[in-house]
Amino acid sequence: MPPWRRLIPMAILLLGLALFLLLDCERYVSFEMLQRHHVTLAAWVARNPLQASLLYVLVYALVVAFSLPVAVLITPVGGFLFGVWLGAVLSVIGATLGSVVLFLAARSALYDVFHRKVGATLARLEAGFRRDSFNYLLFLRLVPVFPFWLVNIVPALLGMRLGPYVLATVIGIIPAAIVYASLGAGLGQVIARGEVPDFGIIFEWRILLPLLGLSLLALIPVVYSRVRAGPTSPR
Fold this sequence. Notes:
This protein has 235 residues and is an all-alpha fold. The chain has helices spanning 8-22, 31-47, 49-65, 71-82, 84-118, 123-131, 133-142, 148-157, 162-185, 187-192, 205-229.
């Protein structure tokens, strides 16, 4: 395969993001739009549950793959339309599919370039990340302060295998998906009261502390293996 063809998937994703921003499409995916059309939307989902579920997963996957800045609204909408548990499950499926697309595109387009530029400098970092890649990625997924798009790309640049990437992604995004789906399940009452939901709830200490605790648990096997191995002998 010619090298330039490896750039095509990533170029498509970047072009889609650029068009989304240039055309100001974010105004069509907003809480205000949900306020206006929530009754019609909920009625359509009730009449077409299977089609609605598949469409929701597809939309979520596209949002994540193109790194569109509206993902924070998509999961609550899933909770609003499908309930907490089904909404969370569909969100996890959609987010995982989109993450895999971006991961594969980044690995195809950027891995060789990245390693030609800084590979020697980061050789030890890459080796350490690969050795415990599942735990490191699980930690990054559970802590909601790292940009989701960045966490999708970095493992691709550091040579993580697809299987552990998918598993760590699925497990790592479940807690936040449940939190946001729970928030979304109450959107009907919020809209009826004329209020605006707090999408920053994930950063409240009552939510953030348990997530931080889970993220630290993900690193315990890494710390244990380092302690058990002992200090590295100098060469």
